[in-house]
Amino acid sequence: MSEEHYLELCENPVQFENASSVNNVFFDEANKQVFAVRSGGATGVVVKGPDDKNSVAFRMDDKGEVKCIKFSIGNKILAVQRTPKSVDFISFIPDYPHLECSQECKMKNASILGFCWTNWNEIIFITDQGIEFYQVLLDKRSLKLLKSQSVNVNWYMYCPETAVILLSTTTQGNVLQPFAFKSGTMSKMPKFEIELPVVPKPAKLNLTERDIAVATIYGQLYVMYLKHHSRTTDSPCAEVVLYQLPREGSCKKTNVLKLNTTGKFALNVVDNLVVVHHQSSQTSIIFDIKLREPDCAFNVHQPVLPGRSIHPYRIPLTGPAAVATQPPVPCELYSSSWSVFQPDIIISASQGYLWYLQVKLPPTVNLLQDKGKLMDFLLRRRDCKMVILSVCAQMLNGGDKGGLPVVATVFDKLNQVYKEYLEAEQTYTVAMESGPSRGSAARDRPVRTQAVIDQSDMYTHVLSSFSEKKDTSHKFIIAVLMEYIRSLNQVQITVQHYLYELVIKMLVQHNLFYMLHQFLQYHVLSDSKPLACLLLSLESTYPPAHQLSLDMLKRLSTANDEIVEVLLSRQQVLGALRFIRSVGGHDNISARKFLDAARQTADQMLFYTIFRFFEQRNLRLRGSPSFNPGEHCEEHVVYFKQVFGDQALMKQVTV
C-alpha cells in the first residue's frame, strides 16, 4: 500500500552528470559534494553540493588519472590525488589565487589510501603504513607535518561530523584503531576488536569496509558492524552490531539489531533511526535503539516497523529530447549502482542523482498499533508535533480500542517530556539571573523540540473539538479531560484555566452540578480568578455557583478587588463592605465606588448606612467627617442633604 511507505527520497535531489558522460564520479562526505571529473586535454570538474553555494565548475591541467578529489571545509583549498605517493593542492582562496603545491607521504615505501580534510587548512593522509596529519601553508607553498603515527592499515573510515577516523589493522582487519582530531591536535583513542562470526576451519573471515559504517545516533558516535553468520550456524540471519565509541574511555558493544534474513544490506541513519536496506527484497527496515523490546534481551532490538520499500520516485525528463507532455521516468530503487553514505545519503552514479533519505511519520501511525510504543517512537523524531496531535485526536474519536488506560498512558508520556522541558527552562532562567559562576561553562538555552506538546497544543488541536463531539458519550469526554488534568498534576505542571473551563462547561451542559460541586469542594479543579469569574456567570443556571465563586476568590487571597467588584455588581453593597473590613482593606477603598453602588439600589436606608460609614472613616482617619475634593463625592453629599436634611450630616467634633 502506497500510504505505508515510511521512507522516501528527498524531492529536490542534487543532480550531476551521470557516470556514462564522465570518467569518474567522487563523493566528499565532509562537504556533501559530488565531483564529476572528465579527462581529455584538460581535466574538467563539475562540483555539485546541497545548495548552489557549494556548486562550482573549473578546469585543471591533465596530470594523470584522478584517484581522489576533495575540497577543504568551505571550498578554500582543493586536494587532488593522482599517484599512490603524493597529493596536489590548488588554492581557491581569492587572496592566493591559483597557488599550487604538492606533498609526498613521509613514510618510505608507503602508499596513500586516501585523505580527509578536518579543517579548511588541515588534512590527514592515510597510508598503508599509518597516518600523517598536516597543516597546509599555501603562502609558503608547503605543508607542515603536525603529527604522524605508524600502524599497518588495511582500510579506513572517517566520520566528518565528529572528526574521528577508524583504521583497520591486523591481518583479519577486525582490530580498529580510532583517532580524534580537533583544532590542530590528533588524539589516539583506545583500539577495540570487532567480534567476527565463527566460520568452519580452515576458512578465515576478514573484516572489510563494506561491513562497517560510522554515524552519530542520539548524540553518541557508533561503529555499526553488519555481521553475516555462516549458513551452518543455528541462526544464519544477519544482524547489525553497534559499538559505542566515546571520546573518553574504551569502545563497548551496546546493541544488536536483528535483521531476520540474509543477503546484501546497506546502512543509513536518519533522524536517529538506523535504516537497513535489503537489496534482494527491495525493502528497508528501521531500528530505534532507545525503544526497549519487552520480550528481548536489554540491548537486542527487532525492527520497529515491518519492512517496506522506499516510496516510488520518478525522475523528470530533461534536456533537448524532453517533451513537456512526457511523464517522469520511474527510478530504479535499490539499484546495484546505488552507493550509500552516512548518515542519510544515497547516490546513483548511473543516473546522476544524490538524494537525502527521509522518514515519513504519518504512515508509521497505522503500522505501530501499540499506542504507548508509538508515542515513544514519535516523541524522538524531528517533525513529530502534528503527527502526535493527530494520533491523540484519532485515539479519542473512537477509531482505536483501549479506552481510558491507553489515553492515560499517552498523556503521561507527553507530559513527562513537557515537564522535562519546563524544568530545563527554569534551571536556565535561574542560572541566567544568578549570573555566571566561576569555573562553570556557559549554559545554552534549552531547545524546544517538536516533542514538547503543551496544554495550548492539546487544547487547540485535540481537546476543544473533542469536547464538542455529539456522537461521543459525555461521560467519556469528561473522563478524558480529567485524565489529562490528572496527568498534568502528576508531574506538577500548573493546569491552565481554559482546561478547567472545558470541564465545567461539559458538567453544566449535562446538568452534572453535583459533580461540579464535588470537583470544586475537593479542589480537583484548582482555584483561579478566570475560573471564579466563569462560576459567577453560571449563577442563573446554578445558583450555588455564586457562593462557590466567592469562596474561591477568598481562598486566592490576592483577589480581594475582584470579590468587591463582584458583590457590588450584584448590589450586595453591605456584603462587599463586610468582606473588605474582614480582610482589613476598608481604610483604602474608594468611598465613591460604594456610594455609587448604594444609590443604584434605590434603597435610601442602605445609602444612609454606607454614607455614615464613610463619614466615620473620614473622622477617624482625618479628624473630620467631610469628604476630600479628590474623592469626588460632592453629588452624593447633595443627595444625602436632599433626602435626610443638612442636620443629618455628621458634625465635626470640637475639642
Structural write-up:
Among the domains are: 17-155, 7 Propeller (Methylamine Dehydrogenase, Chain H), CATH 2.130.10; 571-654. It is built from 15 helices and 32 strands. A hairpin with a 3-residue loop joins strand 30 and strand 31. The termini are far apart.
CATH architecture group name of the domain at 17-155 = 7 Propeller
CATH first level of the domain at 17-155: Mainly Beta
Note the total helix count.
Answer: 15
Globally, the shape reads elongated
- CATH superfamily of the domain at 17-155, please? YVTN repeat-like/Quinoprotein amine dehydrogenase
Q: Residue ranges: pLDDT <50 for 5 or more in a row? A: none
Average pLDDT works out at: 86
N- and C-termini, Cα separation: 101 Å
CATH topology label of the domain at 17-155: Methylamine Dehydrogenase, Chain H
Find the structural class using helix and strand composition.
alpha+beta
Domain Regulator of MON1-CCZ1 complex N-terminal: 25-143
GO biological process, one term: regulation of autophagy
Protein name: Regulator of MON1-CCZ1
Organism: Hucho hucho (huchen)
Detail the topology: elements first, then pairings.
Layout: E1 7-9, E2 14-15, E3 24-28, E4 33-38, E5 42-48, E6 56-61, E7 68-71, E8 77-81, E9 86-91, E10 100-104, E11 112-117, E12 122-127, E13 130-137, E14 142-150, E15 156-159, E16 164-169, E17 175-182, E18 185-188, E19 192-193, E20 212-217, E21 220-227, E22 239-244, E23 252-258, E24 265-270, E25 273-278, E26 283-287, E27 300-301, E28 314-315, E29 329-330, E30 338-341, E31 345-348, E32 353-359, H1 362-367, H2 371-378, H3 385-396, H4 403-434, H5 455-466, H6 474-490, H7 497-509, H8 513-521, H9 529-537, H10 544-556, H11 560-569, H12 573-582, H13 591-600, H14 604-622, H15 634-644
Parallel strand pairs: 23-27
Antiparallel strand pairs: 1-32, 2-32, 3-4, 4-5, 5-6, 7-8, 8-9, 9-10, 11-12, 12-13, 13-14, 15-16, 16-17, 17-18, 17-19, 20-21, 21-22, 22-23, 24-25, 25-26, 28-29, 30-31, 31-32
Helix pairs in contact: 2-4, 3-5, 4-6, 6-7, 9-10, 11-12, 13-14, 14-15
